[in-house]
Amino acid sequence: MSRAREWGRGIPPRRVDLSVRIGSLELRNPVLTASGTFGYGDEYAHVVDLRRLGGIVTKTVTVRPRPGNAPTRIAETAGGMLNSIGLENVGLARFRSEKLPRLAELKATVIASVGGETEDELAELLEALGAEPGVAAFEINFSCPNVAAGGARYWASPSRLEATMRRLRPLSPRPLIAKLSPDVTDIRDTARACEAGGADALTAVNTFVGMSIDLDRMRSRLGRATGGLSGPAIKPLALARCHEAAHAVGIPVIGSGGVAGGRDALEFIAAGAAAVQIGTATFVEPAVAVRVVDEMREWLASHGITRVADFRGTFAAPAAQGCAPADARELAEDRP
């Protein structure tokens, strides 16, 4: 019998402890907003009490401002959407002078997403922001599929990831979270490389590379040939990558991909995630993250679970069956 089937009777929701730890950072609950889907956070403050969330992950900040990719940048798909934003952002200087002071006023837990085309640019960002009092942690964006330089393909090399993390780790006392691409041969290899380099946690995963063609005009529905696919359509894929990564490393993994409700979030937690990020669902329901927190608490309470941390990793994957490769002895016995 799995641990999930052994939980007792319901308890009052107020008794459920949703707090989780990501490295040295303690979050009030495991629900974060995903980078690139919630602005810098302050844009949503009039509809969402940011203090009710575990934290917000900002738009990815680069050393210099970026205008992003040419339109069209978003295309709706079955069960999700494609985006080709291209890391549009205000740049390091304005992020420090304008965005961080505003977020400090809102009492938000801020995880700053940083991105660069090279190891040097990432180091410059952490040297500038590493000790900022308004930043609780950093998410290193190793996985954007929508930029020509410094994107997911560039950072798909485990050796490059490990070397870069080793350089970045001394530059800030804050937790460093490596955001991984799903479009790799084996996410366990990149996960282990980041852990070996000193990452405190991982985010699994960023968007999947996809495309959509307008047959009538015979052109891409985006300004580029491909974009990042997100939304409910990718949840089963993201859940599998999260499960693989979480069982390959000893550091916390943050699950991301298609979370739109409390049960979605708890699937990632059961698969081994310490926390989750909510992205595309925010476009449909700006305050969805708050609802997810409440739904998680209610489900856990109804199953008598007093700490979300106790639910982490309770899913026991069944042993491989059916199509698993036969061993040498089985093959020998099958010969005439």
Rg over C-alpha atoms, rounded to the nearest angstrom: 20 Å
User: What is the fold-level CATH name, i.e. the topology?
Assistant: TIM Barrel
| Beta-strand content | 15-25%
Low confidence ranges: 324-336
**Count of individual domains:** 1
Give me some keywords for this one.
single chain; 336 residues; alpha/beta; TIM Barrel; 8-stranded parallel barrel; 4-stranded antiparallel sheet; disordered C terminus
Written account of the structure:
This protein is an alpha/beta fold. The chain has one domain (3-334): TIM Barrel, CATH 3.20.20. Helices cover 29% and strands 17% of the residues. The protein contains ten helices and 16 strands. An eight-stranded parallel beta barrel has the order 3-4-7-8-9-10-15-16, surrounded by five helices. It has a four-stranded antiparallel beta sheet with strand order 5-6-14-11, with no helix packed on it. A two-stranded antiparallel ribbon has the order 1-2. Mean pLDDT is 93; it is low at 324-336.
Compact overview of the structure:
With 336 residues, the chain is α/β, with parallel strands linked by helices.
Topology:
Layout lengths: L19 E3 L2 E3 L3 E3 L21 E3 L16 E4 L2 E4 L8 H14 L4 E5 L4 H11 L7 E5 L16 H11 L7 E5 L6 H11 L3 E4 L3 E3 L2 E2 L4 E2 L6 E4 L4 H12 L6 E4 L5 H10 L3 E4 L2 H4 L3 H15 L5 H4 L16 H7 L2
Parallel strand pairs: 3-4, 3-16, 4-7, 7-8, 8-9, 9-10, 10-15, 15-16
Antiparallel strand pairs: 1-2, 5-6, 6-14, 11-14, 12-13
